[in-house]
Amino acid sequence: MEIRTIILEMMAKIAQQQKKPLAPLRDELELMDSGLDSLCIAILVAELEDEFGIDPLSSTVDHSFPVTIGDFIKLYENEIH
Amino acid sequence: MKSTNRTALKELTLTHASTGRFLLDTSIRIPLCTHDPASRLRRGVSVYSDTNVFIRTRSQISTVIALLALDGIAKRMIICPPDISDKQIPRLFEVAESNTIVSDADIDTSQYPQQLGQMRTSRNIDTEWVLFTSGTSGFPKLVLHTLSGLMAPIHGHSLTHAVWSTFYDIRRYGGLQILLRALVGNGSIVLSDSGESVSAFLSRLGIAGVTHISGTPSHWRRVLMTGSAKLIAPAYIRLSGEMPGQDILDRLQATYPNARIGHAFASTEAGVVFTVNDGQEGFPASLLAKTGTFPIIRIKNNSLCVRSDATARRYIGKEMPPIADSNGFVDTGDIVKRAGERYVFVGRREGVVNIGGQKVHPEEVEAAINRHPAVAASRVWARSSPITGMLIAADVSLTPRADRTRPDFAAIRSEIITTCRAYLAPHKVPVQIYEVEEIPILNSGKIERRHA
What we know:
The complex is a heterodimer. By secondary structure, chain A is mainly α. Chain A is 57% helix and 0% strand. Chain A has 4 helices and no strands. Chain A is globular. An 8-stranded mixed β-sheet of chain B has the order 2-1-9-8-10-11-12-13, sandwiched between helices. A 6-stranded mixed β-sheet of chain B has the order 5-3-4-6-7-17, sandwiched between helices. Chain B has a 5-stranded antiparallel β-sheet with strand order 14-19-18-16-15, with helices on one face. Chain B starts with 8 loop residues before the first helix and ends in a 17-residue tail after the last strand. Residues 111-121 of chain B have low confidence and may be disordered.
């Protein structure tokens, strides 16, 4: 499965588990406007670490925190490929 | 060390004349009444007079024989548990000021100081019993007890025909308590074997007719997971070493409706402090009101502090802190909270994790998770997160179903979270729950804590 698909599905799953209303996900949408709070994003990063074996947010120092969903997905895509 | 008219363990064990008593492991059955099992070792045992004997045996039964032979003769017996690696031995040997090693295996003694072996004639001295703490990391601490302290929690009548057993190794405090109960209480004991499956051990216990048996809550969870639990029908079940939640007490009572179930509060340093026999988790707050008689229990900074005659004398080694404070109280590091007329255990002080500035004890979260009937055992751990610092995660193993179908974990997962939300503050609810086959436990019978 594509990295993008995995991430988007994971976001939907976490929103459901944490009972958060999820906005329609677009690349330009800012993460903080997606409906996920910081706990949800922390869970997302942990779940993705389980999935891909990497945590790009912890492993690199010079990354600024991704602002949009597109940035977030790109961070994983760049790290994996 | 004083020479007293104290009775040695051997005398206490063998004065009872009832027949049919035994020591049993996977390969040997030693009768406890017809002859003295330690007689072979005791031939020439006087060479151990006033020596500090390091007991490092492969089998538990060899250690039992050494204890029977050497108590009252050796100055100090250092009881080495099985999970100590060969590498650690020379250092421990030195800290314990040992000069002799007793073993049932071929060992390379060249690295140890040669024994002195001077003949002495002293008899029935108050031998020191040295136990190791079950610390999960680092170097174990050596804890000095005496036989009278070890026996202080053992009272009441001898239970002739009692067949004792324990999931603990008898070289640990919890196991040694059971061994002493069997030996001085005119009973028998069945010893476990580290290479044996839980089912095989239960089967052996069933054949031996075990009547009294102890273990940690984690040991008991494994028993309930095997499907072999009904191979035994004990009259008395004892839990210690970890704090049992209500769920495990209820499950054991449901599996063994005729058993009396007690949980003992004990540690290697504090000794057995009290036993609770009413089937409820925690302990009655009225225990705190008792004054004058041992044990005396106080709560200080939410931690259970105790003063009793079962407490160890001291740690062995240089620059070790005292075990008790100047008033004789041992701070156990077990955090408790008042719930109505009882105190319940929340967790260990050193296991606390910090979630966004708020304290969480893994044990309290596990207690909530374990309330779910499909959960057999759980382990909660803190996972580091670049976003929030820490996240609460849980490993969960499910009770096998009779028809061997796999339950729907996603459904159970959300039920577990619902249960946790009902019993815990929001920041304590686990956000990641993993299904695992089995929760690993250490040789001490306690959950192997995960540090990630």
